[in-house]
Amino acid sequence: MPQLGQDTLLEIRSLAVEFGSNRVVDDLSFRVAPGRTLAIVGESGSGKSVTSLSIMRLIDHMNGTIAKGEILFNGGDGPVDLAKAPVETMRKVRGKDIAMIFQEPMTSLNPVFTIGDQITEVLMLHESVSRKEALRQAGDLLEMVRLPDARALLSRYPHQLSGGMRQRVMIAMALACKPKLLIADEPTTALDVTIQAQILSIIRDLQEKLGMAVIFITHDMGVVAEVADEVVVMWRGQKVEEGPVDQIFANPQHAYTQTLLSAVPTLGSMAGEKYPKRLPVAVMDGETPRLVGEEHLQDTARYDQSPILTLKNLETRFDIKKGFFGGVTHRVHAVEKVSLDIWPGETLSLVGESGSGKSTIGRTIQQLQEATGGEIFFEGKAISAMSSAERHSLRQKVQYVFQDPFASLDPRRTVGFSIAEPIVTHGLIEGAAARQKRVDELLERVGLKAEHARRYPHEFSGGQRQRICIARALASRPKLIIADEALSALDVSVQAQIINLLMELQADEGLSYLFISHDMAVVEKVSHRVAVLYLGQIVEAGSREAVFERATHPYTKKLLSAVPIADPTKRPDRPMLEGEIPSPVRRVGDEPEIQPLVEIAPDHLVAQNAAG
Amino acid sequence: MASFLLKRILQAVFVVFVVTLTVSFAIRLTGDPALMLSQGAGSVTEEDLANIRQALGLNEPFITQYWDFIKGLFVGDFGRSFLGGTSVSMLISKALPATLALAFSSMFVSIAISIPLGVHAAVNKGKTADQVIRILSLVGLSFPNFWLAIMLVLVFSVMLQWLPPSGMGGFASYIMPAVTMGVILTATNVRLVRTAMLETLRSQYIQVARAKGLSETKVLYKHALRNCAIPLITYFGLQFGGLLGGIVVIERVFNWPGLGTLAFDAVAGRDYPVLQAVITVLSLLIIGINLLVDIAYGLVDPRIRNR
């Protein structure tokens, strides 16, 4: 049996993992010391998640095989090679010595069992305690992850909890048997920033308390900088670099690490700049990085013209709960008295967390959702006063790019068909040949090739698909594009390229963007102006400079402080963010208090309660 | 819940009304019971026939006859059989348990076979076991059920003499009818369980369950199966209706003293009261099963319960 040093909890030696004949992890080696945090970073397809699933041997159930190498784990009675351990041994290790939390808190808990059942299950399995004792311990665990009213939660079901609460339940479940190693696979990616900050601090505190090691898998360099002791960088299934976190950030050796770090949007990167800027992006071209794009000031906004879109006291509510006689008892107050303007060539960003109403505003403008009050003016004309033909043509002038490039293209249609569809719908170009020419042009415009038109969506990567979605949005020659979290699902280097593409299109075509995002660093990079939304109301709005550099509303400040900074020397000593994002659901008759905006400086509006 | 039940009961009343009206009307187009009754009785005059019709109440207009039937329903009186004058309620009360016993044992056989096979096929998707199970289910699907019944009788009763060929008696008499019905149902059920299971196995909570260190049996039969329950219960419920239809043929083959045999004889003899009663009871059964299915949704899935 191979030996492990006292200071090693887990050592992976030249691991190779295959799906069929496809090798997705190759010659991977690293070491985890007890009580330390190792971050594995890389983009989608780098093999980082497969590595974690291999340690747990969950890839056995996904038709993956460990082709080579050892996964030595020191559980207390000498090292065991998990790569070859029989299933019975693995079952004793899983959940007991090594526990795991996953990315999607909304789907990690079994919807048909209570929280209590799911936590006690693991306690009763590994610790052989009675159900009563297990329930008592489960309550303690929920208190440990700072869930309010922990005992009552035991009899609740997952769907009754928010995403952040569910992820805390997952953590409680993972820590039930005090594992020596916790594997966290993108545990905060699906969460809002303030909730992410909560979860990270909970994991950090409990790690200290229980003395466990953590393998933290993420694509977010900000999170890495905040939590990691050591870092392993993976690229195309291989480790390209490893080292202490300070060293990786201060002095990255491998070209890939360098490009990765250069692509990370960092909060404060635009400080002192008046306009957004296009910056060259380093991308990997084979084994060497190459700079694409050029520096360009984005002074495209035409404030001398009249606004292309104006919202006046927009209000969107929808009824949800019905009473016994079919009467409405509760409403979602998604958007409350929102007023804003977008000028030609301008990027206006809406930022906020889940339930802030930012997506509803986009959907209301695109007439996917009916406004319940207020007015939308497009090019000076109220939508409510438009004829149905005018409304139809409005759909041509306002286009949408959605978050998920995988779900927003019809998998059974060629890419060319999807791009041509708006042209056909709005009768913009007659004749198949002319249409084809326009589709080819559009594909080239977004950085793809004309021959891609005949292919199907599954043949493209996420970034390419988002380019296709942008080409489709451009097809009808719109004036305004609503980009709803359009960059959120993309890897950072791809994200940086798409940002440049959007800016380039803005400069060439004079497009306006309504940019909806929860990612403060990206918003800072792209916006001319910003509006911060909280529970359907704008709490702060103004130029990017004003909102980011002179943030006044406490909620804006809280959002900014919650963003992880991609610099390990600047680990924030932020106060623990408590509580949940409140719900926009209210009883009928319980009207929210409207906070009027007050101009505290030119082009800087703040909700009255915070304006002082 | 109360408004839900009320809605369901009103629905049931409407369904029973439409079904019985259609059936009562349609069967009266197919022949004269008076002629049927007097067959083989030597020379029958037109006067004799008129007397029979008068005695059975068939000279009344259809609406009156139907109204009498409906009135009877409310007091639980289905009238008397045209053939022999036995109380229809008594006939039904004898036949209903026999049919229910056969239907439930068929469902039981089918579920007991199809769940493990379907789960096994899903877990081994694309492998030999999956292929074999899928081919077998296709073969099962292609059998006409009466043919299978006759083959079973031939082998197990005539050749091997292990099982009684017909009639309802002890446990042994249930085996062949239940297996015949069960096999046909199983063929579709296996595929359904497999599909539902494949969907559920892709869920992250299944990975989480495995990461807890649970045994594969617990992962599959506790965590996964319960999440498949909604489509399965829906289908099993719908299937029960079809099963009651199919049972007419099987009861005939095995001479099973159930509602199927009763209905068959009633149609042959134009025994209106019996036929109307059987159809009414069958519709009520199907409605009842579907109501149970809806209630079961809430029991297995808390997300529906709280809505």
Automatic annotation (TrEMBL), chain B:
<protein>
    <submittedName>
        <fullName>ABC transporter permease</fullName>
    </submittedName>
</protein>
<feature type="transmembrane region" description="Helical">
    <location>
        <begin position="100"/>
        <end position="123"/>
    </location>
</feature>
<dbReference type="InterPro" id="IPR035906">
    <property type="entry name" value="MetI-like_sf"/>
</dbReference>
<keyword id="KW-0812">Transmembrane</keyword>
<keyword id="KW-0472">Membrane</keyword>
<dbReference type="InterPro" id="IPR045621">
    <property type="entry name" value="BPD_transp_1_N"/>
</dbReference>
<feature type="transmembrane region" description="Helical">
    <location>
        <begin position="232"/>
        <end position="254"/>
    </location>
</feature>
<feature type="transmembrane region" description="Helical">
    <location>
        <begin position="171"/>
        <end position="193"/>
    </location>
</feature>
<feature type="transmembrane region" description="Helical">
    <location>
        <begin position="274"/>
        <end position="300"/>
    </location>
</feature>
<feature type="transmembrane region" description="Helical">
    <location>
        <begin position="135"/>
        <end position="159"/>
    </location>
</feature>
<comment type="similarity">
    <text>Belongs to the binding-protein-dependent transport system permease family.</text>
</comment>
<dbReference type="InterPro" id="IPR000515">
    <property type="entry name" value="MetI-like"/>
</dbReference>
<keyword id="KW-1003">Cell membrane</keyword>
<keyword id="KW-1133">Transmembrane helix</keyword>
<dbReference type="Pfam" id="PF00528">
    <property type="entry name" value="BPD_transp_1"/>
</dbReference>
<keyword id="KW-0813">Transport</keyword>
<dbReference type="Pfam" id="PF19300">
    <property type="entry name" value="BPD_transp_1_N"/>
</dbReference>
<feature type="domain" description="ABC transmembrane type-1">
    <location>
        <begin position="96"/>
        <end position="293"/>
    </location>
</feature>
